[in-house]
Write a structure and sequence with these properties.
Number of strands: 2
Order of helices and strands: EEHHHHHH
Oligomer: single chain
Strand content: under 5%
Helix content: 55-70%
Largest sheet: 2 strands, antiparallel
Shape: elongated
Structural class: mainly alpha
Strand order of the largest sheet: 1-2
Radius of gyration: 26 Å
C-alpha cells in the first residue's frame, strides 16, 4: 500500500486520494450558467468550512469525516446567517423562518412601547430620586 503525504502531519493512501479526486470530478457541477450568485455562495461556504476544519490535524479519514459532519451540523442548525435575515438555514428549510421573524417583530414592538412609557415617566417625574427609581425599575 502506498501513502501520499498531504502535510507534515497527515497522510492518506494513494487509493483513497484517487477515489476522492474521482468523486470530486464526477460530482462537479457548473452553477454559474444559470445562477450567477450561487457559485460565490458555494465558494464562501467552502472557505468557511476550510477555516474551521483546518484548525486541527486529522490522522485518519474518519476523523476528517466526523469534523466535516460536525461543521455541517453547526452551519445548518446553530449558525445565524446575515443573508438569511439572521436565521439559521434549518429554520428556513423546516418553515420556521416566518414565525421566528414575526416573534422578533413582536418583541421589538413591545420593547419600543416599554421604552416610550419609561421615557414619559422620566419626563414627568418631579425630582432626580424619582427619575432614578424609574430608571432602575
Amino acid at each position: 500500500e502506498r501513502w501520499f503525504v498531504t502535510s507534515a502531519y497527515s497522510a492518506i493512501t494513494i487509493d483513497l486520494l484517487s477515489s476522492l479526486i474521482q468523486h470530486a470530478f464526477d460530482s462537479h457541477q457548473d452553477f454559474t450558467t444559470h445562477f450567477s450568485r450561487t457559485g460565490g455562495k458555494i465558494e464562501r461556504y467552502h472557505r468557511t468550512m476550510k477555516n474551521v476544519v483546518k484548525l486541527h490535524h486529522y490522522y485518519m479519514p474518519e476523523e476528517l469525516e466526523a469534523a466535516l459532519k460536525d461543521f455541517v451540523e453547526y452551519y445548518n442548525h446553530q449558525r445565524y446567517h446575515e443573508s438569511l435575515q439572521n436565521l439559521r438555514p434549518a429554520d428556513i428549510y423546516y418553515g420556521r423562518g416566518k414565525m421566528i421573524l414575526q416573534e422578533r417583530k413582536r418583541i421589538k414592538m413591545e420593547t419600543i412601547k416599554q421604552r416610550r412609557l419609561n421615557y414619559e415617566k422620566i419626563k414627568t417625574a418631579k425630582d432626580c430620586t424619582e427619575k432614578k427609581e424609574i430608571i432602575n425599575s
